[in-house]
Amino acid sequence: MPGLPSDHRSTVIGSSLLKEVMVEDAVGMVLAHDLTQIVPGEFKGRLFRKGHVVVSEDIPKLKDIGKENLYVIELAPTDLHEDDAALRMAAALGGVNTTIGEPHEGKVSIKSDILGIAGIAREVVDEINRLGEIALASVTNHRVVFPGDGLAATRAIPLIVPEHKVQAVESIAGDYRKRHGIAPISVRPFRLMKAGLLTTGSEVFSGRIADKFGPAVKAKLEALGSEVAEQRFAPDDRHIIVNEIHYFLNQGYDMILVTGGMSVDPDDRTPGAIADAGTDIVSYGTPMLPGSMLLFGYIRGVPIFGLPGCVMHDPYTSFDVLLPRILAGDTVVKEDIVGMGYGGLHRC
Ligand SMILES: Nc1nc2c(c(=O)[nH]1)N[C@H]1C(S)=C(S)[C@@H](COP(=O)(O)OP(=O)(O)OC[C@H]3O[C@@H](n4cnc5c(N)ncnc54)[C@H](O)[C@@H]3O)O[C@H]1N2
Ligand code: MOO
Q: How far is the CA of 321 from the centre of ligand 2 (A)?
């Protein structure tokens, strides 16, 4: 490369050339990649940006982060710089309701624009990570995300990546889009649903103890943009619970939630009452802790939950996994429930 001192060392990567230049000789040269500083507990980030022209005042700063030599790149037309590779991969993967960030140290983030449910095609993520030299890290499918939350990040591992790796990513992502009509990484918004909430328990109905379930369930719905339209109370009486469920159905609510009485005591009437009301039960019992005693089904097409005691006090239960699916408009089937067991031990 013109202007380089003659004693530099060079490495061939693919068809490109990576040349090492001593920091002292680098004044006036253009940095080939971002340079990271890490001060534990204080700072981790970019000290110098790719493209920065080195000036003499930079030399002590570069030495402080352990740089004796810098890279200068002669990029072959068949290769890509790490930032460009990461950017192209992110552009291929991100879809509706997502935003792609700026390249940063060879990494590009795909973030959510909205509150919604993440759609992450696991098979695409795995296939891409099998290619080598590039990496894609994502959150899990069906994660609830808020505006600005990260969904995935692409990264080139070496500084120079053969373009065919990125083309392979583009083709995997393109095939997925063709087959599914949606990008491999996307976010679906939640619908506003109005729920009827029936709180069972003779101790609450009689006023012996204050209701704690109502506020907890309302907060969980409201956090995702929905609401409890009406809350009613029932003692541990199967017949009364059935009537109350039918009342909610007649009100036309989008979802019915019945709390308490979900376990094995003689006074636990809720699962039987939900069945008696005419529910097609998808599952009573959910392989996740907390929330194992949850019941889920559909009654005349309306999703209905039987919520066990833990939903009242635990922030992340089987209800918190299934509720976002319902709010996103998914029909929950038995296999969805079966799949919750693997990785479903949280705390209990
Ligand atoms: N032998 C077994 N015991 C338990 C099992 C089991 O499988 N075998 N399951 C456990 C799990 S998991 C859960 S969760 C709990 C209870 O679930 P329930 O839905 O039956 O809850 P309740 O018995 O109705 O109430 C438990 C507890 O919470 C109080 N509560 C209920 N509703 C309200 C409310 N609206 N406001 C305030 N407090 C409320 C209630 O008074 C009880 O103290 O069962 C485990 N046991
Ligand atoms: O159903 Mo309990 O609901 O696992 O803590």
A: 13
